[in-house]
């Protein structure tokens, strides 16, 4: 086994939901780099929201899969791949999601419009930082440079129905996935982590058999399926656990570090 690239999800896999990354995980990624392995962060977040995490992880010139795969870019702003979503698709998503009690957020590369709060404003600041703006008339401001939309529901038991409704209603006009307990996201067709990872590896001449993917969410499933080797934290989404080859410890037990030790044979 020879791993040349590690694709790692951020929230729920590498970082806890309050944004903490354990020093052991940071050290494990650095050790992988020292072995000549390319480390690729694969996240639903936009690049503009990642600065604090990239500083901690020491990311400088490594490509980043962002916005569920709609963007592949470098930290300095260079974009390798960009897939955008027509505004009319986001408007149809809102028409389907709002009657179910969801609030909507719309993401461009450098801005986030939130149409209503279904959690406290402080919670939105924690999720999206200073780039989110409350705009009740957000739908009138959308254009076709949209990167993704997010339907947010306060009741996580309602999210499966929300996911099903959006998938059935939008069909092949958007890739719709559940990214967290309260989030359903939609991006352009082909904008998923697995497709983005496959595209990036083709450019880099890296075979899937040389890739390790680690992720905890429903939005990580395509990435876990594509990679030659895969792991998911034990407290991850059931859909991720169902396809992962190896089940790592839960997020509070540093699953990233444990997965790298397992697959790269660092265990003593």
Task: Please provide a written account of the structure.
The structure is a single chain. The protein has 268 residues and is α/β, with parallel strands linked by helices. It has two domains: 5-82 and 191-263, 3-Layer(aba) Sandwich (Rossmann fold), CATH 3.40.50.1000; 87-187, Hypothetical Protein, Haloacid Dehalogenase-like Hydrolase, Chain: A, domain 2 (2-Layer Sandwich), CATH 3.30.1240. The protein is built from nine helices and 14 strands. The chain has an eight-stranded mixed β-sheet with strand order 5-4-3-2-1-12-13-14, with helices on both faces.
Task: Give a nutshell description of this structure.
The protein is an alpha/beta fold and 268 residues long.
SSE blueprint and pairings:
Blueprint: E1 5-8, H1 23-34, E2 38-42, H2 51-57, E3 64-66, E4 71-73, E5 79-82, H3 87-97, E6 103-107, E7 112-114, H4 121-128, E8 132-134, E9 148-152, H5 159-170, E10 175-180, E11 183-187, H6 193-204, E12 211-214, H7 221-226, E13 229-233, H8 238-243, E14 246-248, H9 255-263
Parallel strand pairs: 1-2, 1-12, 2-3, 7-8, 12-13, 13-14
Antiparallel strand pairs: 3-4, 4-5, 6-7, 6-9, 9-11, 10-11
Distance between the termini: 18 Å
Low-confidence stretches: none
User: pLDDT average, as an integer?
Assistant: 95
Give a count of the beta strands, DSSP E runs of length 2 or more: 14
Shape summary: globular
Q: Tell me the number of structural domains.
A: 2
Helix/strand-derived class? alpha/beta
Strand order of the largest sheet: 5-4-3-2-1-12-13-14
State the CATH architecture of the largest domain: 3-Layer(aba) Sandwich
The radius of gyration is: 18 Å
CATH class of the largest domain: Alpha Beta
CATH topology of the largest domain: Rossmann fold
